[in-house]
Write a structure and sequence with these properties.
By secondary structure, the chain is mainly α. Helix content is 85%, strand content 0%. It starts with a helix and ends with a helix.
Length: 131
Amino acid sequence: MIKLILKIADMQFIKYGIVGVLSAIVDYGLLYFSYTLIGINSTLSVSIGFWGGAIFNFLMHRFYTFSETKESGHTKTLVKYALLVLGSYFITLYLISLLMQYGINIYLSKAIVLVLVYIYGFFIGKYFVFK
């Protein structure tokens, strides 16, 4: 158990958290802009925020969080990242839609789903995408 805690607390996980917070700001900013200010429907607004955050997230993880990756093929990394993001995207859309059906507003739904996708994304990113 102690070994697991130490492994999770490594610097890479902290960097991942910093990038995650910044990506969430991009995601939420685009969601707020498209949903509240412009009035686009919830599914499209969630999509706009998600993809804007995902692009920012990839660039930051590729060149900051996982910059010491042994893999030199950017195309291969990008394809694997795209698979991770597609999975995260569909999980996000489904869970936000489900939570909104239960009366939870879009912003709280997004926050709940963001935590789940964050944890999933770290481990898939570390051991599959940027290994």
